[in-house]
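Complex 357.
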Amino acid sequence: MTKGTHAKKTVFSGIQPTGVVHIGNYLGALRNWADMLDDYDCIFCVVDLHAMTTPYDPAAMPESVRETLMVNMAAGLDPERCTLFVQSHVRAHAELTWILGTCASYGELLRMTQFKDKTSRYPENVNCGLFTYPILMAADILLYKAEVVPVGEDQTQHLEFAREVCRSFNGRFGETFPEPQPKFGPVTRVMGLENKAKMSKSLGNHIPLLAEPEEIWSLLRTAATDPARVRRTDPGTPEICNIHTIHLGFSSEEDILWCEEGCRSAGIGCVDCKKRLAGNMSASLAPVRERYKQYAAEPDYVHDVMLHGAKQCEQRAERTMHEVRKKTGCTTKSNRYLSPKGIQLFRSENSKQTREN
Ligand code: ATP
Ligand code: MG
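Predicted structure with adenosine-5'-triphosphate bound:
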């Protein structure tokens, strides 16, 4: 609900309501977003239109959206210091997606690794939305003229694509959008518990951000580590171990050093390392779990946050779309009829005519 912050650079980022928010989302995205609230004009979005590109239950979507929003708030996205909203509540995302699609390269889209990955995962659901997903992401960012986009490493290619679309639009229709820059935090990629693919909401290889200490331990206990450490006496390489990466996100410098030295010298075993991590994670995430419980007990407040965010973003988006329609030539006098006042005028002229007939 930020006010008077337009002199600050605008930040935009989003998260899909595709499942349980996990510690990869937290370390790669949410925590960095929360750190930016005071220095930027921050807009964060639950991107339900993106989530439609993979199989889902429409009846469960509203609850998934609410849940994702609440976890974001619990992770530190204080609604008093940023704008939080739901993508489908602002129709202009879809309109700008179409317009930017005319500036986007088909050949570039074919190269997107997430498309290849998700189509191989859902071969029965290779839909066009999955293919044009990066154009929608470009629209999300450009609609608010965002200059900074904090994301995890997996979104680097999509962001580069958004930058190209931005240049292409500006080149064709005149300077309109600033070129968005990616911003990465200290941990850019957390691998899944099996250490084969990145931790993902949709892969079931995650530690939930809201996991209680017992669940954290039971998931960490069996998580993959450096394969060189078969026996406790085998030394390892912390830099290639996912448990070490997670330590970087949750542990003190002292504990990280202890884990690194102990691993290299086989002075500690993987279980020792994981136990220390489980304790640090449980403690560091306790306030997130606590805030979540508070927000979950205040459904009306969460609803208000959503509505307020939608209203604010709709106004901002409409300002951009006005400029975009003008520059692309998608505007005539009749566009007046699109404004609420215009619709009234149109209706009254029509009914006048009807009466006269
Ligand atoms: P899905 O499996 O449905 O794609 P996801 O877990 O990849 O879900 P997204 O909603 O696609 O989550 O991404 C939200 C944000 O979290 C993005 O900025 C993304 O870069 C970041 N992110 C996702 N997974 C990881 C990860 N394993 N490590 C670091 N950052 C991540
Ligand atoms: Mg993803």
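The longest helix spans residues 299-328.
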